[in-house]
Amino acid sequence: MIAVTMGDGAGIGPEVVVPALLDPDTLRRCRPVVIGDAERLRRAARLRDIACEVATVAAPGEAVFTPGRINVIDLGLLPADLPWGELSPIAGDAAYQYVRTAAELAMNGEVQGICTAPLNKRALHAGGHVFPGHTELLAHLTGIEEVSMMLATPTVKVIHVTTHIGLIDAVRKIEPGLVERTVRRGHEAMVRAGTPEPVIGVCGINPHAGENGLFGYGEEEEKIVPALEVLRADGIDARGPLPADTAFFLAGRGDYDLIVAMYHDQGHGPVKVLGLEAGVNLTVGLPVIRTSVDHGTAFDIAGTGVADAGSMIEALRQAAEMSPSPAR
Q: How confident is the model at residue 276, as a pLDDT?
């Protein structure tokens, strides 16, 4: 049973949720229940010229799963005239409430996983909820101090040591303990997903991973190498520090199962070039699996009915595969 949050109702979330939940493969893999706004989903279905039943339920256990039916726990927070493609504090608050409700359902054991459509950070903040994104929000809601962001495409998977902070702050924050914990979370996720002995490539911080001290001030030796020594002593195949400009190429040809990026753009840039449409964002370290599309609210095309649902379908697939205790 997967809780699917609708995301920012002014963005493309409703437009990708509808076809993703109606996809035959989705229904074969899991039982998805949307947390969102039923009327917004109906509008999205009409935009895409999709005939379906959007049925409201009070709880996941009440959902009925038949072809052509979408089950939704309707929080009813969006006005009927909410415009598409415009920043709205109301939509930002609603997106928060969808995630909060999904987290409660997960913590109560009513769902085994969470799959999130995109929210808009500016709208979220305008709605009174100052979090950098889904990752930090879900950590707060589930009482977890530290989690990691993982991005997955058909060719490359990457986990981040730091994410939504400035580059200078990221370098300051990186230290051996954080690197070690991040690699361990990535290793555990890969094993859980069916790779029993993953080969993990760990990027450096500086160009050429410091080039033996030529670039930077010894950050690799200080912040990364000690962590790798501990990990390897525990039997985890973590290799590096690697030059980031070659690490992703090597992963793409199959040398590494997972790449560890030190900061946001070091990991996000290559992943989005290699597979944005099929990319999935996973939060690793939560007490429940959470996956998400690897794209934003796309206000520029919201309301046009042309948004690609491929990433949402893939996110649901991975949520189903990695959920720890499938519903019977």
A: 57
How far apart are the C-alpha atoms of 51 and 48, rounded to whole Å?
A: 9
Instruction: Give CA–CA dist 204/12, Å, rounded.
Output: 36
* Type of residue at 110: E
* DSSP SS3 for 113: strand
**Spatial distance between the Cα atoms of 88 and 83, rounded to a whole number of angstroms:** 9
Q: Return the axis-axis angle of helices 176-192 and 225-233, rounded to nearest 10°.
A: 40
Tell me which amino acid residue 166 is: G
Q: What angle do CA 142, 139, 71 make, to 5 degrees?
A: 65
The predicted structure's pLDDT at residue 327 = 42
Cα(82)–Cα(44) distance, rounded to whole angstroms?
Answer: 13
> Helices in 88-175 by DSSP H: which ranges?
89-107, 121-126, 134-142, 167-173
In this structure, the chain runs to a length of: 328
Q: Are strands 148-152 and 157-160 parallel, antiparallel or unpaired?
A: antiparallel
Contacts of 179 (CB under 8 A, 6+ apart): 161, 202, 223, 224, 227, 228, 260
126 close to 92: Cβ distance less than 8 angstroms:
yes
The answer to whether the CB of 186 falls within 8 A of the CB of 260 is yes
Residue 46 CA to residue 141 CA, distance in Å, equals 34
Query: Strand 280-284 to strand 148-152: parallel, antiparallel, or no bridges (unpaired)?
Result: antiparallel
Write out the two tokens for 16.
């990708």
Cα separation, 225 vs 80, whole angstroms? 55
> Residue ranges of the alpha helices (H) in the chain?
13-22, 24-29, 38-47, 89-107, 121-126, 134-142, 167-173, 176-192, 219, 225-233, 244-252, 264-275, 310-322
Q: What residue ranges of the chain have pLDDT lower than 70?
A: 275-279, 324-328
User: Facing residues of 149 across strands?
Assistant: 283
Residue 175: helix, strand or coil by DSSP?
coil
Task: Kindly give the pairing relationship between strand 69-74 and strand 32-36.
Answer: parallel
pLDDT at residue 189 in the model: 87
Residue 313 tokens, joined: 């379908």
